[in-house]
Design brief:
By secondary structure, the chain is an alpha/beta fold. Helix content is 40%, strand content 18%. Strands 3-2-1-4-5-6 form a six-stranded parallel sheet, sandwiched between helices. α1 links the parallel β1 and β2. The chain is globular and about 45 Å long.
Length: 186
């Protein structure tokens, strides 16, 4: 069974995190742990028009972002991957510079030091040179940087189609089979 930690930081894009959790909840071979920043809690309510409690129910385990006594705060707690979706520039900078002031950044620091898969979905545009330097630093450390840039060759008809494309690509990179979008056939 794969254990994946889903981290939701305070940037627009809660739809991506929600859909990722929905798909993983239906996969009996995956266990999810969820961490949500305080800013993300407000964004979830605003963008998704659901309660944070309903959002949390999509995960198998939930930890508060300030809980350094949670199991996932230790490198001895094995997980397969961590995904920060969406990732604010503040969180990206903290991860890139080893500033582990909260559980999200601590989990990402563990992923880096233990050489586990780490996927970051930066949600900001345009990127400035500092953003790009932080992404380059993380990419050189093996972090997969996946801005939510959809493909249009699959002719999306709805926002859900666009979200599914991006989430499907995350799942591909986690090694989880999915049929969320029509794949390129040439």
């Amino acid at each position: 069974m794969k254990k994946i930690i889903i981290c939701v930081s305070g940037a627009s894009g809660a739809h991506y995190a929600k859909r990722l959790l929905e798909v993983l909840k239906d996969n009996e071979n995956v266990k999810t742990c969820l961490i949500i920043s305080n800013s993300a809690k407000k964004i979830i309510q605003h963008e998704l028009n659901i309660t944070v409690d309903d959002f949390i129910k999509l995960s198998d385990e939930y930890y508060e972002n300030n809980n350094f006594f949670s199991p996932v705060a230790s490198g001895s707690n094995i997980f397969d991957a961590a995904v920060v979706v969406p990732c604010s520039m503040k969180t990206l900078s903290s991860i890139a510079n080893g500033y582990t002031s909260n559980l999200i950044c601590r989990v990402c620091d563990i992923a880096l030091k233990e050489q586990r898969k780490l996927i970051i979905m930066p949600r900001e545009m345009p990127f400035n040179a500092i953003h790009l330097e932080n992404m380059l630093k993380l990419s050189k450390l093996g972090v997969l940087i996946m801005p939510p840039i959809p493909g249009f060759y699959n002719e999306p008809k709805t926002i859900d189609d666009i979200i599914d494309f991006v989430v499907g690509r995350i799942l591909d990179n986690l090694g989880i089979k999915n049929n969320l979008f029509k794949r390129w056939k040439g």
